Queue: 2 jobs
Job 1
Amino acid sequence: MPDIFLAPEVAQALREGRPVVALESALITHGLPRPLNRDVAREMEETVREEGAVPATIAVLEGRPWVGLSREQMERLAAEPSPVKISLQNLPAVVARGATGGTTVAATMHLAHRAGLRVFATGGIGGVHRGHPEDVSADLPALASIPMVVVCAGAKAILDLPRTLETLETWGVPVVGYGTDTLPAFTSPTSGLPLPLRADSPEEVAAMARARDDLGLRAALLVTVPVPEEDGIPWEEVESEIAAIVAEAEREGIRGPALTPYLLARLAHQTDGRSLRANRALLVQNARVAARIARSIESSSPHPRPFTSPPAPLLTQGSGEGRG
Ligand code: PSU
Ligand code: MN
């Protein structure tokens, strides 16, 4: 059985060396409430298109890893009654059992890279949980070992941000502020933590990605984009809410993969939906920035690609189920 299914449009864009942007799906299945999840997923795809790139939302449907979803597939995933939250740890089991779910940053990066994609947009990456330094998201080792460009709004504000930043540094992941000198904090424009690297244009990011590839380094380039000021919540305003929510999760004994979705849902409740508005705005903005970076990378790199071609996976074009 082939291991990855490509939407026809994605397969064609890759063949022609046109820019493609990977999008994750755990935010659809576990990060946002319905029907906002479907609306935001669509809006991200439309934004990537407006910017002249091809969107490839990645998910596992009935055991098949898809890179690029048709409208119907997206619809089904967003309405799925009990989807699996798929990270690297359970990806093989989900495929073996024919299950359906949304892929986290880690699992999305793996599948995207295997399919030959180079740029990926998400919301907030996972990291080190507050009060639980043993709970480190698989997103971090994935970022350390999969050479993509990942566009995000920093790590989720519910996490231990200084520890998350230190861990990324330990593992050699360049964390770049996009038009900023401090680490964005997901729904807040800044955490106040200084970043050593800054880029102000897609071309600068593309140049860094090229240098990374030329040097044979394997870590992702993490591009962090602040949520638009008008949609974000100032850090001082959410800080105490977040502390209270984290304490509440502790009392309730919520741990492991359930923790992030729980914290996000509570944050939405406590902020009267302001965190959802911010989440939507930052996701759409990240899709836009990622598309611009993907265009810059494709326009400046030879085709076929010398270093990032996948390790000979069995790639199949979707038939019938995919885009026509
Ligand atoms: N960004 C969002 N909403 C989300 C996520 C990211 O705006 O729900 C997801 C990502 O898929 C990320 C995951 O990989 O949360 C992290 O989960 P954990 O902390 O359990 O590793
Ligand atoms: Mn975890």
Job 2
Amino acid sequence: MKHIPHHVAIVMDGNGRWATKRFLPRVAGHKKGVDALRACVRHCGDIGVGVLTVFAFSSENWNRPADEVSGLMELLAVALAREVPKLQAEGVRIHFVGDRARLSEKVRNGLAQAEALTATNTRLVFNICFNYGGRWDIAQAAAKLAAQGREITEEALAGAMALAHVPDPDLVIRTGGEQRISNFLLWQAAYSELYFTDKLWPEFDAAAIDAAIADYSRRERRFGRTSEQVAPKPSSRKVA
Ligand code: IPE
Ligand code: IPE
Ligand code: MG
């Protein structure tokens, strides 16, 4: 039996290249990306992942061409309307993580409704990072503490961050071949295992998730300790 990470976070990258390879507009890649995400949520629930966090739109993605940005906003609104009732039926709790101020009223209302509708679900926590940036999160947490006149400690900052409702990710996956963080979970990924794959996000299926988790299962997480300190004693080691 593989060791299933409790919290999996994913940088869903490569939609544009997937579309361009097929002579399609980039937004067609994002649409296909929503289908891949739908399958990913279902598979994570099925195999016992407790928390899934995905990077859907970064603070920096506003710099893309206007038609792609509006296409992504529209896609979020459409996907929420279509998928939330099904996610609700599957016991998925939705959290929106990011700066809502710049989003349209329609999108803001859709997000608030999705969160309210699914608030008591417990099978899988699903965090959608939209208009999110790791630096924004650290800065907004610090600003919150400052406004309350509180001391800035690691614990206080962690508690004021947008992902304070879940433990730090165990595994961070990035599809699309780039090996960088792109302002994703800067604070929370301090001790996450990182997994990079050349697969483009629309091609990232259940088998690809299993492959990432199999790779994760072979890692030794030391958190600053030595291998001898964290490795199980030979007597307690499972025979394969
Ligand atoms: C990731 O795919 C989705 C978003 C950033 C919204 P990209 O759109 O970045 O795809 P590539 O990297 O251009 O292939
Ligand atoms: C990261 O992908 C953001 C999301 C997946 C939402 P990008 O494609 O925007 O990242 P960079 O700009 O290539 O680093
Ligand atoms: Mg990209």
